[in-house]
C-alpha cells in the first residue's frame, strides 16, 4: 500500500502513454484531471492485488471513444463519478475499490481522478496490460466475467446503463451509445470481486508505468538514450527508427482508424484502430496484436499516440511482449490479428 500524489503523476502518465500502444487517449489530459482531483480531495491510496479483500467490489473506470475527439472535446471532469454512481445504483451496493480497465494514456489517469473524487482506494493493476480498442478485450472476459451492467456518462449529464447478453454485445451497444453521446464518455463496468483479481488483472501495471516514465525522464536528464531506457525497462525490442512520411487517419464508428508510414533504413507501416495493431517492415510483418507496438519520440522518449502522429516526427518503434494469457487460443480469438480483419496469425516478436 502506498499513496499516489501529484508528484507521481508526470512519470505515471508518461509511462502509461507508452504502454498504451498509441491508444488510451492523451495522457496529458488525463494527468490534468487526476492532478485537479488530487488537489481537491487529497492523495489516492494504491493497493497491491494481494491486499484487496476477497469480498471487495472492484469497479474498473475508463473512457470510451475515439482519441481524436479528445483533442477537441475535453472531459468535464464529472463523467467518471457519474458513471460510478449510476453503476452502483443498479448493483445495489457501493464500490469498495477502483481499478483501471487498461494501462494506457488517459485511461490510466481517469481512475486516479475517480478514486480521489469518490474517496476510494485504487488497485495496482489493469485488465489488459496495455490498451485495446474494444470493451470485451479484457482478461475478465477470459474467466467469464461480464462487462455488464455497463454505465456510461457524458459531459452533458446524461447517463445510461447497458445490460447485454454477451461482452461482444456490450461493446456494440456501448459503442453505439458513445457515438450518440459525442464519441467521448466515461464508463464503469466489468465489476470484479477481490478474489477474481489475480486471474482478471495484470498486476502492478501502475507501478510499472511510473517506473517506466521515471526511467525515460532520468535518461533524458543524464543525456542518455531515453528510448533505450524504456526498452530496457519493458524487456522489449527495437523494431524501427525513422521519420513519419505519411498518415492516413479517419474517425469512424467510434474509433480512430488508419495507417502511418515511416521511412528510414527501409520502410515501416503501422496499422491502427485507436491502438497500433500490426507493424510491417519492408512489407513483411514484424509485430502483431496482442503484443505491444509502442511509438516513442526518438529524441525525448515521450509516447506518440495515434491521434498525434503527424508528418515529420522522428520516432522509434519498439515491440513489447504482452501478458502471456493473451497468446492463449482464447486470448488470440479475442484480440489477435484475425479478429481485426488482418489475414495473418499472431507473430511472436523478433529476438532483441
Mind explaining what this structure looks like?
- This protein is of the alpha+beta class.
- The protein has 2 domains: 2-203, CV3147-like fold (3-Layer(aba) Sandwich); 225-340, CV3147-like, CATH 2.40.390.
- Helix content is 32%, strand content 28%.
- The protein has helices spanning 6-19, 27-41, 67-70, 79-91, 106-118, 139-142, 167-180, 197-200, 205-221, 226-234, 329-335; strands spanning 2-4, 44-47, 57-65, 97-100, 122-123, 125-126, 150-153, 159-162, 184-188, 192-193, 202-203, 237-252, 255-264, 266-273, 275-281, 284-288, 292-297, 314-320.
- A 7-stranded antiparallel beta sheet has the order 16-15-14-13-12-18-17. Strands 3, 4, 7, 8, 9 and 10 form a 6-stranded mixed beta sheet that branches.
- Helix 1 packs antiparallel against helix 2 (27-41) and helix 2 (27-41) packs parallel to helix 5 (106-118).
- The longest helix has 17 residues, at 205-221.
- It is globular and about 60 Å long.
- It comes from Nonomuraea dietziae.
- Residues 8-163 form the S-Me-THD N-terminal domain.
